[in-house]
Every structure is written in structure tokens, then in C-alpha cells.
Amino acid sequence: MNDALDVAIRLVVVFAVFMVLPLVIGQTEHKVMAHMQGRLGPMYAGGFHGWAQLVADGVKFAQKEDVVPAAADRRIFQLAPAVALLPYLLVLVAVPIGPSEGAVGQVVDAGIFFVLAVMGVGVLGSLMAGWASANKFSLLGGLRTAAQLLAYELPMLLAAASVAMAAGTVSLPGILNAFHWWWLPWQIVGALVFFIAGLAELQRPPFDMPVADSEIIFGAYTEYTGLRFALFLLAEYAGIVVLCGLTTVLFLGGWHGPFGADGLGWVWTLLKTAVLAFVVIWLRVSYPRLREDQLQKLAWTTLIPLALAQIALTGIVKVAIS
Amino acid sequence: MSGILAQGALTAPHGFLSPTGVEIAFVLVGIATLAAAVMTVTTQQLVHAALWLVVALGGLAVEYLLLTAEFIAWVQVLIYVGSIVVLLLFGLMLTKAPIGRSPDADSGNRWAALTVAVAAAGTLVWVVVDAFRTSWIDLDGPAQGSTKVSGEILFRHWVLPFEALSVLLLAALVGAIVLSRKSAPDDAPADAAAPRETESR
Known about the structure:
The complex is a heterodimer of chains A (322) and B (201). With 322 residues, chain A is an all-alpha fold. Chain A has helices at residues 3-36, 53-63, 74-94, 111-132, 136-167, 172-177, 183-186, 188-202, 213-216, 226-251, 261-286, 292-321. Chain A has one domain. The longest helix of chain A is centred in the first third of the chain and has 34 residues, at 3-36. Chain B: It is a multi-pass membrane protein.
């Protein structure tokens, strides 16, 4: 197989995953939330338990008129959804799902830095949307998004740095190759910090202050309609896929499992990712929204000290066993 | 990713008259980066300036990638695009940055600024050209800017400057906290939020 074809096939596969998994998670959210709240959720679209509900939603979004407010900054307003969505597609390229050569879109040498850097870029989309809408609610949403990102980027980085220290490499497949089962208890604090900070970066409940629909009417996305709004929603679900995939790869051992390591590694990765995605949905149903000051306090007084303690622990153990 | 890009480079003849694919890409990205930087300082719309800065900094990251310095490239994106620009936009949102042109965005001392900028650019270009006049990066061999190589060089040969820089940054951090506290000594509750913002830098 020649190189160009190989690259093309990999990109097509990653793109297909990027289009399918967020929809699967969206549908799961519909159903899981419904059952946790004692109702059925979508039941009609597509016939079997409403499996085609999100497809129908997509068709509905595509039919809606694409409105740009008269006072808005047109070009930035229209560009923002793409800026919010594309980084997650790029990140997905670097996440390995299996041990073999073919199970990762593209091996990136400085993998951790790549994924964290590109994930941070996605937030620019929300900021652009918040400012360009020329709407007070949107501006408030944008401000809260920025404040939240500044607070939670640091613990996320520190937790990831702890794993990189433990593995002695910053490449994602390299980290998985170095993984042992006892890393799980060793890095558990870092894993929690990473996951919580990631949730906050995605603005998922209980950290959805920037989009709080009951206070500031979906924040930065207030003025968006139709397909562009759908793109923002897709970005949120793609973000869940990426966050759960990264937590799996960094902290839960990715393709390592109790059995079936040969050939079935990708099943383990997908399974762990799915369980984490379920937890994300579960948290949305069970926790009330944090207030803005509680958000900041949690990041600066709890998560960052915990992440620093995890780094210290990682360093001590690393020196002790070598 | 740089591996794909580097494949375009044939064995370099080390001449300016027969440029390789990577060299052409390098020059083109450089021109785009320069254009974005010029837009940053000339546009009348404040938030657009910040967004052009994103393009300029991103272009710089691509240049690092083309020079096989992958680690530096991602750190550039992480720190500058992901944090500094977000901080800038945060600051701009706190002001009354209007949609459309700000008539007072032009400074009176633009010629002095231009002179200083040209002088600084000239000095930097001269230093770089003088230092690396005859050295060429072999793009086909093992990446010379990989994380491993960068780390070894940084922590074996450049530990002292590295530590000195970190002390400098710490001093700046402490200074910022002191400055933000000093403004209102008798007004403790309003003051409590200030150091938190400073730390986030």
C-alpha cells in the first residue's frame, strides 16, 4: 500500500469515528437521562427505541434558517463554530485505540502536548462566538468560558505531566507501552483531577456555568440557529469522546485489559471510553450547577494542590523504584 | 506529523536556487505569518487584532514544525494560543471593545513604535543570521527537535539559564501579586479576587 493511500484511509476512518461516536454518545445521553429521570426518552424516530432521533434532529437543524444578528461581527460569528469543532477532530487523529501500528491516526512525538494544546484552541470558538454575537448574555458566557479555561487548564496539564513523568515519555502510545496495572492506584488522584478539569473545560454539568441556560440562555450560543448551533452541540459531544478517550489512554491503560490483549485491545479502549462517557452523563443528571465563585475556588484551592501532590508522589515513587 | 512534511525534503543541495518542498513551505508560511502580524497591529478592530495574533502565533508553530522542532511547536500552541490569547480576549471582553472599528485605536506615537519594531527585528535577524550562517538542519535524519533531544539539551547543557529564567518568572509573579494588593490596602474584600487573576498568568 502506498503512503498517500494509507494516509487517506486513516483520515477517512478518523473522520468516520468523529462523525459516529458523538452521535452515539448523544443518543445514549437521551436514553440514560430519560431512564434516570423515570421516563422513556425518544421512542418513535427510526422505530426501535428512537435510535434515529439524532439523525432527525440533524435534518431539523439543517432545515432551519441560519440567522446572523444585524449587529454581530458577521465573519467571526460565522467562523466560530468551525473553530470550536475542528480541534477535536485533530485531537482524535493522535489518540491510539490499539497496540498495533495501524490503530492510531498519526503517531505524534509530543502527543500529550499536542492533544492538550489543540483542545485548548477549541475554546477560542466559544470566545469568538460570545464576543461576536453583540449580545450581553453571549458576552457573559464568553467571559465565564475564558475564566473557566484559565482556571482549569493548569490542573489538567499538571495531571497529564504526572503520567508523562511516570512513563518517561510524552508520546501517547509510549505511555501505554509503559503502563502496568499498579499505575491505576498510583495515579488515581491525577486521573480524577484530569477528568474533572476536562469536564470543566468542556463546560459539561456541573461545570456548565458559561452556558447556564436558565440564567444566561446558553451563553455564547444564544444567537446561533440551525446548522451552526448543531456544530456547537457536536463539538460538545466530540469533546466528551476526546476527553474520555484521553483519560482512558493516560490513566486507565487504554488497550490493556485483564484478558484478550492480542487483537482485542481496541475493544478495551472503546469499552473504557464508553464507561467514562456514561459517567459524564450520570454527573449531568445527578449534580446541580456550581456557582461561578465555587468553580474558581474548586480549581485553585482543590484541584491544583491535588495535582501538585500527585506530581510529588509520582516523583518519589519513580525515584524509589528506579 | 512533521514526518509527513519532512518527506517532501529530498537530500538538500544547500543552495538557495534549488529550494526543496519544505523550504518553499517554510517561506510561504513565513509570509502568511508576517502578514497576520502586520494585520494584528494595523487593524482598527480590537478583537480582530487578538484573532490575527492567533493566526500569527499559529503560523510560528507551523514554522517550528517544519524545522522538526515538534515539542517547541506544541508548547507554542499550548502557551500562546491556548492561554495568552485567551487571557487577552478575556481582558478585551472586560473592556468596552466595540463590534466594528474603534476610532481611538490609533496611537499618536506610531512612528516611534515602528522605528523600535524595525530596529528590534533588524537586531534579531542579524543575530540569527550571524549565528547560524552556515549550519543546515538535516530534515531527513532523526528529528533534531524531538522532545527527547530538547529535554536532554535543556537539562544537561542549559540548566543554569533555565533555572535563572524560572526564578525571573517567579519574581514577576510575586511582583504582580504585590502590585495588585498595594492598590487598596484598606479594602480587603474587593482585593481578595485580584491575586487570583494574577496567578492565572
